[in-house]
Design goal:
The chain is of the alpha+beta class. The protein contains 7 helices and 10 strands. It has helices spanning 6-18, 27-40, 53-59, 64-76, 177-180, 185-193, 211-217; strands at residues 80-83, 87-90, 103-106, 116-126, 143-152, 156-165, 199-208, 224-233, 239-247, 253-256. It has a 6-stranded antiparallel β-sheet with strand order 4-5-6-9-8-7. The longest helix is centred in the first third of the chain and has 14 residues, at 27-40. The protein is globular. It starts with 5 loop residues before the first helix and ends with a strand. The model has no long low-confidence stretch (mean pLDDT 85).
């Protein structure tokens, strides 16, 4: 059983709460957001046990009642789970798809899909990032490519390829698929490298999917599908990452959020 180190973890949660001082946001929501962010960017891993409510209340500037309300809210949302005998734990399943904040999959009856799981299959250094090379800053040490398979609604799978400058994000290439699975990329970049994503550009097209993608997804060669290119940018407009999501024919719609 993994147990979060109370002192280190609670200091991190207190910092996250302090980073969101908006008085218009209820205190319990600030705490919920801080814990959920810690889960999203891998500071807390699936199955890890959290400190007690009393330890929380002693470390953050909120009352015990506020702590209890926040943790109960996270349990009801499936982020955390509880055992009367053992304590509070991070849920066994994390949805690492913050990069889909611009859109969601929709069934034919109009309901949105919430059953999405993902696994990283590759994290490698490459010399040429293909079309993303023209969008990203020049990188003398090459580029990092992260490949991920997303299972949608238990019905079909998509494949995404994310490219980043290795010069801009040193050390990222040393990650493994195991250490990246279950982690959100954008919070990871902000937390480790101080690179906060301020804008997302999304472009779409339809075309035959690359052979390496159809092979990963177990589809016939030259299968055509939807290609979404998502570019994450800094406050100055510089491209930090380019993610290409390949969506095969499925019968599902994609609903884009208002900008």
């Amino acid at each position: 059983m993994n147990i979060a180190m109370p002192g280190t973890f609670l200091a991190d949660i207190a910092r996250r709460c302090a980073d969101n001082p908006d008085a218009a946001t209820p205190k319990y929501l600030r705490l919920m957001n801080a814990v959920e962010d810690a889960v999203s960017d891998g500071a807390l891993r699936p199955g890890e046990r959290l400190p007690t409510e009393l330890e929380f209340a002693g470390a953050v500037p909120y009352s015990l009642g506020t702590v209890q309300k926040a943790l109960n809210g996270l349990v009801s949302r499936g982020i955390l789970r509880r055992s009367r005998r053992s304590g509070t734990f991070v849920g066994d399943r994390i949805e690492p798809l913050d990069d889909m904040s611009r859109f969601a999959f929709e069934r034919s009856d109009g309901t949105l899909v919430t059953d999405v799981s993902a696994r990283v299959t590759e994290c490698a250094t490459i010399d040429d990032a293909g079309r993303a090379t023209a969008l990203l800053p020049i990188s003398q040490s090459g580029y990092v490519r992260i490949v991920r398979i997303d299972e949608i609604d238990g019905s079909f799978s998509c494949c995404s390829e994310t490219h980043l400058s290795r010069d801009r994000f040193p050390g990222l290439a040393s990650e493994t698929p195991e250490t990246l699975s279950g982690r959100n990329l954008r919070p990871l970049l902000a937390r480790r490298f101080g690179a906060e994503t301020k804008a997302l550009d999304v472009a779409t097209s339809t075309a035959p999917m690359p052979e390496r993608v159809t092979r990963l997804l177990g589809l016939p060669g030259r299968t055509s599908g939807l290609e979404l290119e998502i570019t994450g940018r800094t406050a100055t407009g510089e491209a930090m990452f380019v993610q290409t999501l390949y969506v095969p024919p499925s019968g599902y719609r994609i609903r884009f959020a208002d900008r």
